[in-house]
Fold this sequence. Notes:
By secondary structure, the chain is of the alpha/beta class. The chain has 18 helices and 14 strands.
Amino acid sequence: MTDKTEQDRVLIFDTTLRDGEQSPGATMTHAEKLEIAALLDEMGVDIIEAGFPIASEGDFEAVKAIAQQSQNAVICGLARAQLPDIDRCWEAVRHAKRPRIHTFIGTSPLHRAIPNLSQDEMAERIHQTVTHARNLCDNVQWSPMDATRTEHDYLCRVVEIAIKAGATTINIPDTVGYTAPRESADLIRMLKERVPGADDIVFATHCHNDLGMATANALAAVEAGARQIECTINGLGERAGNTALEEVVMALKVRNDIMPYRTGVDTTKIIHISRRVAAVSGFPVQFNKAIVGKNAFAHESGIHQDGMLKNAETFEIMRPSDIGLKETNLVMGKHSGRAALRAKLKDLGYDLADNQLKDVFVRFKALADRKKEVYDDDLIALMRDTASDPDGDRIRVKFLRVICGTEAPQSADLTLTIDGEDHQVTATGDGPVDAAFNAVKKLVPHNARLQLYQVHAVTEGTDAQATVSVRMEEEGRIVTGQSADTDTVVASAKAYVHALNRLLVRREKAGTDGKEVSYKVVS
Ligand code: KIV
Ligand code: ZN
């Protein structure tokens, strides 16, 4: 019999770096993955799913490096139900202080049809692969993918086989985001009641958000006995994403009166990691997103403001500081010095080394020269823009001048520094952004299709910085780029170039895997 404290503890399994990164366009660089893993470890996440080691050399190296740097968290890698996958996964995670192998196979009728296995053949495969994993590692997680659409009898049968073969955690994925809270709870309850050995393992819940019910489904599963929630920062993930870590963790904290469970997460780290994941994945957080959206703690209507001034609890169920948001928005300006900037950035979660601060300070001064008041959001945008691509940006915008007016076409004079050499070009277009993009394309010809172009004003006022996000697709490779500037056209050109730099990295990686790819500079 486990004691009460153990029963109340819900393990947080973060899969931002695996299921989240799998989302088209959310690819992170090696250094970015290491940074996010370190932040997750520091915030008290119990298990970090660091990647899918067999997927590519890059994935393998990232999982291995995350395993090597891990401090407290269990480091987990994903493997299909195949022996070479499991061996490769173990090769990567075995460097962790606390490694875990997570192996899975689709068990619903639709998924069983893909490898064309009968129920018996699949059961045998599960026995063989889980046994193999357990012979390598004493911490093994097994998932029947699409569990919520698997026949109950068959689900019970395969879960029992996995437990007997040595699985220590059984994860129940709602792969297509199809279940609803009551059903999610009933499924866990049914498995706990019917499967022999169920009391000796941890049940996990892994929900996708296609119907917007991922958080509710995960919490319902916990109430029925699941003790591990699989989730991602900002709910990042394919299609509508995964359960958002910040939502389940804060729900358990704020409504502990009706959901008396504990996690080990330091919630004051939430806002910083949310911003970092948004920046490196290229998936901005929607303004009205629960917990971490820009408006989540904003009370703008007159009635709300009045109530808030009298008593914050009138409209606030949690304090901004609970997630690490500072309540002050101390304005900085061109007279602010380096020490003030360092202190402000530290407040915002950026602890900079001297050389990094030097670089950021130059950019801050340039911004403060153009903009009288520099707000927190300006600094966050500046930090996002400053984070130099660790893979090395081969292309940089050196100069851009756009001539616009009521008469089309508009024209752009552009100088790009490409691999250290300057290249200049003039191009026209239907509007200033189109002209700037055409100029970039003239210097760096490519066939990538622009899938998304989005502009947001960071703060109010006509001198506000614009943050621009760009998403491009080339031969199935999706990349995103972001930038911020008080000039929307400059921010747009830089975001476009940022995405192109990422595309070059992706092309080069594909090249080392055997496909010859290169890019040509035309000047
Ligand atoms: O959604 C899913 O089924 C998954 C599994 C690999 C666990 O991500
Ligand atoms: Zn998933």
